[in-house]
Amino acid sequence: MADLEQTLGYQFVRRELLEQALTHSSQAREVESAQPVASKRNGDNEQLEFLGDAVLGLITTEELFHHFPQFREGELSKLRAHLVSEKHLIRVAQVLELGQYLRLGRGEEKSGGRNKTALLVDALEAILGAMYVDSGLETVRRVVLNHIVSPELEIIARNGSNLPLNDYKSALQEKLQAMGRPQPTYVLVKERGPEHSKTFTVQARLLKADQPETELVGQAEGSTKKNAEQGVARQLLEYLESPPSGKRSRVPGEGPVAKP
Question: Which of 53, 108, 167, 174 is the catalytic position?
């Protein structure tokens, strides 16, 4: 624990919070099963992970708001989606070597739980939640900026690009939630090619805000279903961020298909 605290640059007042943040449910349930039935439930990191996810989102959003005053809402949403994505957070968790500190049940230990992306990312978010409970938002802000946000923004700047290729599905989800609009449904409409080199075609429908009618149908191809879904999500996101005049010209009638 002391080594991890030194890496984070923070010493917990309540060390038990850090221990809970590193405790997977498999280990907590094993401990419970070895105790009398009436014993109290052992704490795992699920609630702290829930809290840490929210804290991470708030700090990241606030930092981007101040750091990029020239960005439009859509650009900020894309960048935030990247910074809080599993793809980025797993790299942070690996740099912090969180796997060696996890408290796992025997089953998870045998199945390689210390290297599982979901467990590592959940533990990282749970640690942020534990820090917030232990000493408040400013402490967490320092760790989030030092380990999660600032290093990645520096990499993006060095590569000569403000925005990375990122999770358009998450960015679209956040955009639609902010607008109070329903989420699209991704449908696989075609797959072709040999088994080792398939091409997948996915469609997604953007529904109107005030009525259950289709405003736009996006369609994209990809070498995997996930890639195709990202492509169609990007189309719908770009449509939502285009000026009203552009939307009218691209949508001559109800439910057009947006070409990739």
Answer: 53
53 is catalytic: yes
Hey, where are the domains in the chain?
2-158, 168-258
The answer, yes or no, to whether residue 119 has pLDDT greater than 80, is yes
Q: Which of 6-10, 202-206, 211-215, 220-224 has the lowest mean pLDDT?
A: 211-215
The pTM of the full predicted model, rounded to 2 decimals, is: 0.63
Q: Do domains 2-158 and 168-258 have the same CATH topology?
A: no
Q: Which CATH class is domain 2-158?
A: mainly alpha
Active site residue 125: yes
Longest dimension (CA), the chain: 69
CATH 3.30.160.20 for domain 168-258, yes or no, is: yes
From the list 49, 108, 122, 125, the catalytic residue is: 125
Structure tokens at 44: 């795992």
pLDDT computed for residue 61 by the predictor: 94
Nearest one of 70, 259, 9, 30 to 251, comparing CA atoms? 259
